[in-house]
Amino acid sequence: MIITVDGPAASGKSTLARLLAQRFNFFYLNSGLLYRAVAYILINNCAYELEKLANPDPIQLQLYIDPKRIVYDYDKDYRERVFFDGQDITPLLKTSFIDKGASIVSTNEIVREQLLDIMRMVPQKFKVVAEGRDMGTVVFPEANFKIYLTAPIEVRAKRWQKEQEEKGIGFTLDEAIGALKERDKRDKERKIAPLTIPDDAIIVDNADLDIMQTLEHVVSLIQRNKMIEAKSE
After folding, report:
1. H-type helices in 47-106, by residue range?
2. At residue 225, does pLDDT exceed 90?
3. pLDDT surpassing 90 at residue 1
4. Which residues pair with 29 in a beta bridge?
5. Share of the chain above pLDDT 70, in %
6. How many domains does the chain have?
7. Which residues contact 107 (CB under 8 A, 6 or more apart)?
8. By residue range, what is the domain housing residue 55?
9. Helix 96-105 to helix 31-46 angle, to the nearest 10 degrees?
10. Residue 88, strand partner residues
11. Were 36 and a residue from 3, 60, 84, 102 both cysteine, which residue would form a disulfide, CB within 3.0 to 4.6 Å?
């Protein structure tokens, strides 16, 4: 059983997917965390600058993007984590710098192909809620249920601005809108697996919904389609 949640930056898809996984007792796959891990590894182990991340050395990619070295794990107590050579690097991946690096490195075809192998191993062991920008179109086109979560850019910019403030980073609303427009453009125009709406996805605009309202709305959609029964926490 695979549920995918796709959508643009700051749409709330990570939080929604995590809550869905908890509600249904599924494994939560955060694809963005894997791209962040690759960006972090290349920057810190290979001294890459941001602009070089779009075209990393294929030999280095073969060396570092290895399922034996990069391990993704999830449980409801510890949440999602990425280990590299046995070390939990998750706390090091949640910075705006690594976020930008992940967006750039995700445009590389070799990176995407190698991470596909890692991600597609997950449903072999677990029922999965997978979140990202191409989960329903490229990674799991066979998914049982697909959600495309979105909201107007002004709404998403305010959410992103608040997230950055919680990290101690200040942006004006205009700066936040500009940052998201740049991210959206890069995600939609990249040659490899651009951000698109899966043909068979249900589009959910949560501009007027908080996260719990969004969760309940999506759960009702899933149950209406008789895909799965929710398990109360």
Report:
1. 58-64, 96-105
2. no
3. yes
4. 130
5. 97
6. 2
7. 54, 186, 190, 191, 192
8. 28-126
9. 100
10. 83
11. 102
**Of 138, 46, 151, which is closest to residue 101 (Cα–Cα)?**
46
CA distances from 229 to 18, 19, 88, 216 (A): 17, 15, 34, 13
Same domain, 80 and 63: yes
Edge-first strand listing for the sheet containing 27-30 = 27-30, 128-132, 2-6, 145-150, 202-205
Strands across the sheet containing 70-75: 70-75, 79-84, 87-88
- Tens of pLDDT, residue by residue over 80-108, are 999 999 999 999 998 889 988 998 999 89
Tell whether pTM > 0.85: yes
Strand (E) or helix (H) holding 154:
helix 153-166
DSSP label at residue 26: P
Residue 192 in tokens: 């490899």
Can you give the pLDDT at residue 155?
A: 98
Helix (H) or strand (E) holding 73: strand 70-75
pLDDT of residue 94: 87
Question: Which amino acid does the sequence have at 35?
Answer: Y
Secondary structure element (H or E) that encloses residue 65, with its range: none
Within this chain, do residues 214 and 142 fall inside the same structural domain, yes or no? yes
Give dist(CA 159, CA 37) in Å, integer: 24
